[in-house]
Amino acid sequence: xxxxxxxxxxxxxxxxxxxxxxxxxxxxxxxxxxxxxxxxxxxxxxxxxxxxxxxxxxxxxxxxxxxxxxxxxxxxxxxxxxxxxxxxxxxxxxxxxxxxxxxxxxxxxxxxxxxxxxxxxxxxxxxxxxxxxxxxxxxxxxxxxxxxxxxxxxxxxxxxxxxxxxxxxxxxxxxxxxxxxxxxxxxxxxxxxxxxxxxxxxxxxxxxxxxxxxxxxxxxxxxxxxxxxxxxxxxxxxxxxxxxxxxxxxxxxxxxxxxxxxxxxxxxxxxxxxxxxxxxxxxxxxxxxxxxxxxxxxxxxxxxxxxxxxxxxxxxxxxxxxxxxxxxxxxxxxxxxxxxxxxxxxxxxxxxxxxxxxxxxxxxxxxxxxxxxxxxxxxxxxxxx
Length: 385
Fold this sequence. Notes:
The chain has helices spanning 12-16, 38-54, 58-76, 89-98, 117-124, 146-151, 174-183, 203-206, 275-291, 293-313, 338-347, 369-382; strands at 26-27, 83-86, 108-112, 132-136, 156-162, 187-191, 210-214, 226-230, 317-319, 331-334, 350-351, 353-355, 358-361. The protein is an alpha/beta fold. It folds into two domains: 12-30 and 293-382, Aspartate Aminotransferase, domain 1, CATH 3.90.1150; 44-289, Type I PLP-dependent aspartate aminotransferase-like (Major domain) (Aspartate Aminotransferase, domain 2). The strands form three sheets. A seven-stranded mixed sheet has the order 2-8-7-6-5-3-4, with helices on both faces. It has a four-stranded antiparallel sheet with strand order 9-10-13-12, covered by helices on one side. A two-stranded parallel sheet has the order 1-11.
């Protein structure tokens, strides 16, 4: 089908030259794993050279972790001191959960059916500590904000909501969710793994209490590292039971018998941070900050509309909303056997992401309209084979 003539505000051709995978495949699976770039590879090699040449350089390595925190903070309009580092969002969520007291009147965790399973599992695991879960339902792949009004009450301790629904890219209004939580005296925890780097996020404007995201998806990094924002207005009253020596006011005091707390979000840090992952994460997030999330979002709106309209023209069944303003970078289509379809598409040079009943196509800043058309043609060709 003919394509609309459009181009992003940045030099997409130059950025594409930094991604070697594009020479052989079309990655449309950023909701699962970002491709390697020249910068992220160089960052990994820089760590390996440091390790090999110096043997041990913890001052430089800790500086790299601090720089990674700063890049994450820049993406969400926070301060580096508001950021803690983890190995995964599962760990970050567990640390937040461990800091909530479920022994009093406020025992309820309001959590949505759109959460990635790990988040629901963490909250379910708090039940022996007194937590009671109340689920916000999805309907046709979306969530009505009115459902939060019905779910949140004066017994609610925390509201846990994803910014983007992993299954189909439906995007929630996190500021509106936080406002509803705070109106009833509850905290607001946001999982932004499926949106950060493609949709502008301002934690101060949204007034969220916690926001977590990992780096292997739209932040152009690798597995094994994630970051947590903690609102500085509440940090001093939180004492996470999931902790470690880097959560102390001075980790290098090596005082085994004293459980003091760092005065910032660093109190949520646990053990030795994932150093090599931090090198790569920093490089990936520098790319996002250099291009600018606003510019990325503008281009992804063009690609998203092309996906929705092109899928419809090819007879594909969209999962979730077709309102691009309420979507992340991910668009999902219903298929009979998503694993089979993913394997078949990979063999034809397109990398999609299978999830349950759908195939997800998730472009990023480097993808083109032709990439989208090729992906849709390939999906339509194999979906019913």
